[in-house]
Amino acid sequence: MDRDLIVAVSDLTCRYAGAPRDALLGVSLEVRSGEFHALLGPNGSGKTTLLRAALGLVPPFAGRAEILGRAATDWSRRNLARVVGVVPQREENLFPQRVHETVLLGRYPHLSLFGGVRAADRAAVERALVACDAVDLADRWLWTLSGGEYQRVRLARALAQEPKLLVLDEPTASLDLRHEMELFELVRALVDRQGLAALMITHHVNLAARFADRVLILAEGRAVARGAPADVLTRETVERVFSWPVTIQPFDGRPQMIPLRQRKDAL
Amino acid sequence: MRRWVQRTHLAGFVALTLTACARGEHVPFRGGIAVTDDAGRRVTLAAPARRIVSLLPSFTEILFAIGAGDRVVGRTTWCDYPPEALAVPSVGDGMPPSVEAVAARRPDLVLLYRSGPNVTAAEQLERLGIRTVLVDLNRLEELGPAARRIGALTGHSRAADSLAHVMDSLASQPPAPGTQSLVFIVWDNPPIVIGAGSYLDRLAALAGARNVFHDLSSPSAQVSIETIAARDPDFVALLSDSALPPGYASRPEWRVVRAVRARRFLFLSGQLFGRPGPRAAQAIRELRRRLAGTP
Amino acid sequence: MKYVLLGAAAVTTLAAALLLGPANVPLGDLLGSPILWQLRLPRAVLAFLVGGALGVSGVGLQALVRNPLADPFLLGLSGGAGLGAVVAIALHLPGPWALPLAAFVGAVGAMALVYRLGLIGGAELDPRILLLGGVAVGAFAAAITTALVSLAEATELRNAFLWLWGGFSGASWTTVLVILVYAPLPLVVLAAAARPLDLLALGEEPAQYLGADVRRLKQLVYLSASLLTAAAVAVAGVIGFVGLIVPHVCRLLWGRLHHTLFPTAFLTGGILLAAADTLARTVVAPRELPVGIVTALLGVPLFAFLLRRWTVT
């Protein structure tokens, strides 16, 4: 099927000034609409750097990072925000605000400089809240929400941008089982139903294997493996990347890794 | 027998000191001089001071006026009267006094105006073994007592007492009759005026002019242009050695004041009017002449 | 609705400023009196404009450094202004504009220095570096000022500091003109930054993902807010508390979205300062209080009261 190529990263190398090694070395990634990509790897492997480079926040030292065929650094932030909706890992909340206000922030890339909020904008907010099952949260204060509810609201904000690509940076890091599953289901549904592309950084290898179409594993700035979960998540790869013994069991057609305990005599 | 003599001497001395309790009175102390200064310190000298450093222009004027000018070995840069004073070496501007420069003149007495920094400087000089005297001199009334003490310390009591007498009688005069009013403007932004409790206010009263801010008890205060305009003084008095109208006189907001609009300024020389001194009577006469319209 | 309220309050405050004063001008003569046209009216207008400028500047800076305790004078501007004023005195610069101009130049110099510090190490106006840099520059300026103070003449210096401590006694149509020339551009720039500043409250990276050009935004907001403050200092000296309190009051009463916050802060700041100046002129007549004291006396209890309400929400 001919799907739009949203993100095209080819042979990307990135450096931070004064760092001992490259943050990324020769990494490639292609994300098309209707695809759910997971980005895996241990801490410090370059996942967030790849995200930033793909979105034009970090310039490439070598190689290319393109969005919709144009270099990511060439995009104005405003125009890029109409194409890519990001749910970042952290954000600040200095002053109390309500849910509908925060989702409305997602419409800002579409608002003109001194223009007001139009009916179309409110409709987009409404649609985003519906898609994230957060309509009944609309009047709540943000600080009263649970972790899961808060993430759904932030996802709604990204959806209100009416993007082609959703980017999520460890969205389930502090969520419980139910909310974590709900979030993965939600992203999958958005990809399937609305034809969005999704790129998610996550530590949850098993859920990534269950829900994602393609997986990219990074280690120390290099791409270790790329492809369908069944092809990528082998015992050798996982053990090497995460430095821990595992066994791989299939479930529902997808590989699931089970970490092994340290042997007592090995201590 | 001897103890009775001693007791009489002691009694006599105690009686003498008790009767001389009034501040500023000098008491001959076994041939020496003793004076209480305005910091409450008792200053004693074995003999009249021979090398005096004066750290206030008013003191310098008084010293020369009572004939002790030849004893002055140091002055501040501000001490510009009488002209003979300019021949005396300067020890700096005195704000704060340079202890080293003063000590380099090897004085046996230093006269200081009583202010915070000067108290500290006096303590430092005392530590070097130099006698210091701290005197208040802000108002007309304080000229007499200041002159008397300076006279005692220099052994020119007679001249000092007669000068003090003139100053005291001037200070005790009632305000002269007159119909004109004035305001003393010291600064324009923000506007600062002189109130009662200051030397200038007193001079004006004795010259027959009413300070429109006489109701303010402090020597100076910040007011608004509107208040000055409302009180409508006949003259704006300022300390200035030139006859050029001040910069603010041409600004529209100041021209709401009638005296500014009509350019009725009294330019008073800083040397004569700016500080209390022996020429107070001369200053009053000068002011009276200006008010009458003769330049 | 809130603008009707604020507008009414503004008109009332201005009317009070025109009617009240140490000179008892009968109502009938008021319209023809130069006291109204040359003194009270420019003074009231200037106080309003300066209050508005400081309020808006406070909003901008609090959004920029993401710290609700930021005050326009926290970033070294008052230290710079003070140094400029003292230099003008020490060099005996002539003319009535020497002092305000020097204060303006000093404030702008401090602003540039703090900006340069904020760029060190590629930090790109990191809020914490801005705040620390502001404190450092302010302390540096204060040290030089103290050194110069010992060289300048005592009375002139005291009077210069009286000016610096803030007040509208020198208000005239000329000073009103100065503000009217300097203020519009920074005000427009800040108004245009209203939406990006809402985004900046989420953090710099989230704001970029939502379409804000954070680097340019920070530069523009910093420069505009500092210029507004420097212009205010040039005509009225250093008046604290207004830039700190007005944003909070407006946020609590009318919301924190900047397209509302900027206008309400302008009006509230203007009302507060015009009222404070009227009090400063009349309460201890014929003397005047420095207006900064009145704003503190009015503002601090108000602030404490609002703080209690704020921590409850």
Give the ordered list of helices and strands of chain B: HEEEHEHEHEHHEEHEEHEHEHH
Low-confidence stretches of chain B: 10-17, 19-24
The Rg value of chain B, from CA coordinates, equals: 22 Å
> What percent strand of chain C?
under 5%
The secondary-structure element order of chain C is HHHHHHHHHHHHHHH
Helical fraction of chain B equals: 25-40%
Assembly annotation:
heterotrimer
Query: Any idea what the CATH superfamily of the largest domain in chain B is called?
Result: Nitrogenase molybdenum iron protein domain
Instruction: Please tell me what the overall shape of chain B is.
Output: elongated
Q: In the CATH hierarchy, what is the class of the largest domain in chain B?
A: Alpha Beta
Number of strands of chain B: 12
Taking the alpha carbons of the first and last residues of chain C, their distance comes to: 23 Å
Structural class estimated from helices and strands of chain C? mainly alpha
Give the CATH topology of the largest domain in chain B. Answer: Rossmann fold
Provide a concise account of the structure shown.
Chain B is built from eleven helices and twelve strands.
Q: Can you give keywords for this protein?
A:
heterotrimer, A: 267 residues, alpha/beta, 6-stranded mixed β-sheet, 12 strands, 26% strand, globular, B: 295 residues, Rossmann fold, 4-stranded parallel β-sheet, 37% helix
Account of the 3D structure:
The complex is a heterotrimer of chains A (267), B (295) and C (313). Chain A is α/β, with parallel strands linked by helices and 267 residues long. Chain A contains nine helices and twelve strands. In chain A, the strands form three sheets. A six-stranded mixed β-sheet of chain A has the order 6-7-8-3-9-10, with helices on both faces. A four-stranded antiparallel β-sheet of chain A has the order 2-1-4-5, covered by helices on one side. In chain A, strands 11-12 form a two-stranded antiparallel sheet. The mean pLDDT of chain A is 92. In chain B, helix 5 runs antiparallel to helix 6. In chain B, strand 3, helix 2 and strand 4 form a beta-alpha-beta unit. Chain B has eleven helices and twelve strands. Chain C has 313 residues and is an all-alpha fold. Chain C is built from 15 helices and no strands. Chain C is globular. The relative contact order of chain C is 0.17. Chains B and C meet through strand 7 and helix 8 of B and helix 3 and helix 7 of C.
